[in-house]
Amino acid sequence: MPSEDLSEERQKQILDAAIKEFARHGFHATRMEDIARASGLSKGAVYLYYKSKDAIITALMRTLFAWELRGARAVMEAEGSAADRLLAITRMLAEEFERMAVAMPILLEFYAVAFRQSSVREYLSQMYEEFRAPLAGLIQQGIERGEFRAVEPEEVALTWIALLEGLALLWVVNPRGLAWREQAEAAVHLLLDGLRARA
Predict the structure, then answer these.
(1) pTM
(2) Do 123 and 30 have their domain in common?
(3) Distances (CA, A) of 66 to 59, 62, 69, 131
(4) Interatomic CA distance for residues 102 and 22, integer angstroms
(5) 3-state helix, strand, coil in the chain (%, to 5)
(6) Ramachandran angles phi, psi of 174, nearest 5°
(7) Which residues of 15-50 are buried (b: 16+ CB within 10 A; e: fewer)?
(8) How far is CA 161 from the centre of its chain?
(9) Could you tell me if residue 146 is left (phi over 0), alpha (psi between -120 and 50 degrees) or otherwise beta?
(10) Same domain membership, residue 95 and residue 11
């Protein structure tokens, strides 16, 4: 078996190639041979790490969501006001969005696959819950500190997620007509304006 360091490097190599191929051809039309060729590895080497295309799709989902979740949790646990941390998370996700712009069509396909496969739907649901719960905790901190008026933290967390997910969908439909980073920040500022405690 390959060493752990080499294994991680090869897995990243395969997933990077898969992102490009899926973005170019879609999940259905992309073959394992395409991913192997784009990765510069043999088909056998790709199968050594991922037994099927579905395994690659699942690994991509986990990689994309796990990175966002780790980064967001680090910001949520940092010092500063709740509003500043919500904006910091928004900016962090905007940077990642721009970095991963080529993969955005893949996210839409994740949703399409989720409608057809309960296992993917359950995984996405779990990922959103892992993101929403600490986000609601951050909103609760803002309420307890007097930053935010009394609101339902779970509803606000869901609204924040829906804002960013909706912008991602609009960007995929019309990438030239939407400055995602600027619009995301503007949307969250509007949300924060509605949350702020009034004197």
Answers:
(1) 0.73
(2) no
(3) 10, 6, 5, 10
(4) 10
(5) 85, 0, 15
(6) -145, 75
(7) bebbbbbbbeeebeebebebbbebbebeeeebeebb
(8) 10
(9) left
(10) no
pLDDT, one tens digit for every residue, the chain (199 residues): 455 556 888 998 999 899 888 878 877 889 999 999 999 999 999 999 999 887 888 788 777 777 677 777 788 888 899 999 999 999 988 887 776 666 666 777 777 777 777 877 887 788 888 889 889 999 999 999 999 999 999 999 999 999 988 888 888 778 788 888 899 999 999 999 999 987 6
Angle between the 4-29 and 32-39 helix axes, to the nearest 10 degrees? 130
* Phi, psi at 179, each rounded to 5°: -85, 95
Can you tell me the distance from the alpha carbon of 57 to that of 93, in angstroms, rounded to the nearest whole number? 21
Which residues does residue 190 pair with via DSSP β-bridges, in sequence order?
none
The CATH number linked to 107 is 1.10.357.10
DSSP-assigned letters across all residues of 3-60: -HHHHHHHHHHHHHHHHHHHHHHHHHH--HHHHHHHHTS-HHHHHHH-SSHHHHHHHH
Residues 25 and 119 in one domain: no
Domain assignment of residue 19, given as a range: 1-51
For the chain, what is the domain count?
A: 2
